[in-house]
Structure formats: structure tokens, C-alpha cells
Amino acid sequence: EGYVVAVVGATGAVGQTMLEILAERDFPVATLIPLASSRSAGSAVTFKGSEYIVQDLEQFDPSGVDIALFSAGGDTSLRHAPRFAEAGCYVVDNSSAWRMDPEVALVVPEVNPEALEMARHNRIIANPNCSTIQMVVALKPLHDAVPIQRVVVSTYQAVSGAGARAINELAKQTGQLLSSQDATVEVFSSRIAFNVIPHIDLFMDDGYTKEERKMINETVKIMGADIAVTATTVRVPVFYGHSESVNITFSAPLDAERARSLLSEAEGVCVVDDPSTEDYPMPSEAAGSDPVWVGRIRNDLSCPNSLHLWVVADNIRKGAALNAVQIAEILIS
Ligand code: A2P
């Protein structure tokens, strides 16, 4: 009664949360197999109160695995996801390696669950970029009411999106600066403590970063609509929870009041939006929670048919681990 589930990258920031979410949601796991690199093979992870020994992905034979949740970086996915899929296993991959492959489904369950049909033959499903996921969950109910023409987004992204070493770097630098030492810079391109870095992932020739390009391309693929998207992605000294300022232009009028009511009823969305009581979403409150939180919903007074939203979600949960487990739940249903 249950499935053989492998978690690839089980020692990482996302992998650890995948284990928690599988347990929380009582996913039918008959056998759990945590995998990572040879560096942490032999160490233990905890699942539902029991310890499991981490195995080396390189040495592991995937025969008999039903579902593998991958979160161990793009290179690892490119090398190992195909051999899991060929062994008959469904792979839900959290890296960017397969997302824009036209043969691979890129899925946010609240937005395009129907795309999973494509996965029946190739068995690899891509989990979108964290910033893209929370934005499209908020865009979808609005786009269904009035088609969206253009989106301008600026992000305020937590360090946990860059993994466990990045979380440690923010903590360590904060301590160093508060005790008048120099900050040690290892993971990010500059100091992240008490700073804001307008640079996530690599720069491309056109001046955009790859993170920005992901938001642009993935939004179009997931929404299945020719929406013009432009993005500026920024790292901020927050541990958990990405925030986004989203400006939307529609093809016809959709005012803030109607948007608020559509979002209040949307799956996976919680509206917190009351200026009179100073209520709006923040990462300090969204961290550890499942919904996409939306507030500051207001008409853009500078442009017709346009709205502003402020969108916050736990980037490790809805932005990664939770979305992957939700996809796995659809695959077994
Ligand atoms: P390991 O503990 O062996 O380094 P994070 O995003 O928090 O940095 O986590 C990355 C996850 O991906 C970790 O579990 C890490 O395992 C795993 N990982 C990184 N590189 C590889 C690899 N080449 N093969 C398997 N797992 C890997």
C-alpha cells in the first residue's frame, strides 16, 4: 500500500522540506529512498520520526522506484533524470534543466494540471522556478476573467532559494557585521547581509539574468498565453519567503475590487489586503505556510486597465517542495 519514492538532494534545503511535506500530507510512501552526492552518502535524514540512510545517487539503481523528486541542481538532473525515467519512474524535477523542453510538462497544479498528460510518455515533469510559481498562481484567476497583455515584475527573493550554504552565509555575515568583522563572501556575488543584490543566476548578453529570463519564458509556457513579461530579480537579506511587486496590464478593464474578489476565491491564494488595519503579506508571516499571499491590490493610476499586486509565498514550500509533491499527488490520483 504505497509507492517507492526517491528524494534526490534529500540533504538540501528543498530536499529536507520535500521530506517534511510528504509526511505532513500523508503521501502514500511505502519505501523512502533519500539520495544525495557521495559527500553525504551514509549520513541520515529523518522522515516521519525514523532515520533513513542517504545513498549515493551515482551508485544507485532506480529500478523499482515509482516517483523521484529531484532537487540537486541542473547538472545532476540532466545526467540522472533520464535514467530514472527509462527505468519506469516518474521524475518531478525542481531544476531548470528540462523546463523549457517542448516535450516536458511545466506544471503548477492550480494553473495547468492538464499539462501533465504530456508526462505519460516521457515521465519527466518540470517544477517551475520559485518566483514564477507564486506569480502565476496569482495571475491565473485574473487572466481567466480578462486576458492579461503585459506583466512587469520586480522580486525580493530570500536567500534560501540559493540553497543551504546561502542560508548559512546570510547568518554568518550578519553575525560578522554586528561584531565589527569583515563579511566573508562565498556564495553570493557580493555581501548579502544588510544589502540588496540585483543579480540572481548568470547574466546573459542582452543584460537580463537567467532568473529574469526564467520568469519571462516559464510564465508564457505555464499560462499557455502570449503574455509580454519583463522582470527584475533581486536578492534580499531574508531567509524564507519571496516577495514580488507585480504590475499587470489587461486587454480590457478589470478593477481592484473585482480582482480582490476573484483572488479571494482562487485556489491556493489567500488575500490579506486592508490598508485601514495595515494588513498586507510579508515573508515573515508567509514563511512555513502553503498559500500564495496577495495584498496591496490597487488600480494603477498611471495606466488604463492596469493593476498592482504584492505577492508573497514560502519559496521553499510553494516555490519548490510543495509544488513538486502536489504534482506527485496528481500523478498517483
Ligand atoms: P550533498 O549533501 O551530498 O551535497 P542545496 O540546494 O541546499 O545546496 O542542496 C543541494 C542538494 O543536492 C544536496 O542534497 C546535495 O547533496 C545534492 N547534490 C548536489 N550535487 C549532487 C550530485 N552531483 N549528486 C547528487 N546529489 C547532489
Automatic annotation (TrEMBL):
Gene3D superfamilies: Dihydrodipicolinate Reductase, domain 2, NAD(P)-binding Rossmann-like Domain. Catalyzes the NADPH-dependent formation of L-aspartate-semialdehyde (L-ASA) by the reductive dephosphorylation of L-aspartyl-4-phosphate. Homodimer. It comes from the Bacteria. Substrate binds at Q157, R235. Its EC number is 1.2.1.11. The active site is at C130, H242. InterPro entries: Asp_semialdehyde_DH, Asp_semialdehyde_DH_beta, NAD(P)-bd_dom_sf, Semialdehyde_DH_NAD-bd, Semialdhyde_DH_dimer_dom. This is Aspartate-semialdehyde dehydrogenase. NADP(+) binds at T11, G12, A13, V14, R39, S40, S160, G161, N315. Phosphate binds at R99. It holds the Pfam family Semialdhyde_dh. Belongs to the aspartate-semialdehyde dehydrogenase family. The lineage of its organism: Bacteria, Pseudomonadati, Pseudomonadota, Candidatius Mariprofundia, Mariprofundales. It catalyses: L-aspartate 4-semialdehyde + phosphate + NADP(+) = 4-phospho-L-aspartate + NADPH + H(+). Pathway: Amino-acid biosynthesis; L-methionine biosynthesis via de novo pathway; L-homoserine from L-aspartate: step 2/3; Amino-acid biosynthesis; L-lysine biosynthesis via DAP pathway; (S)-tetrahydrodipicolinate from L-aspartate: step 2/4; Amino-acid biosynthesis; L-threonine biosynthesis; L-threonine from L-aspartate: step 2/5. GO terms for molecular function: aspartate-semialdehyde dehydrogenase activity; NAD binding; NADP binding; protein dimerization activity.
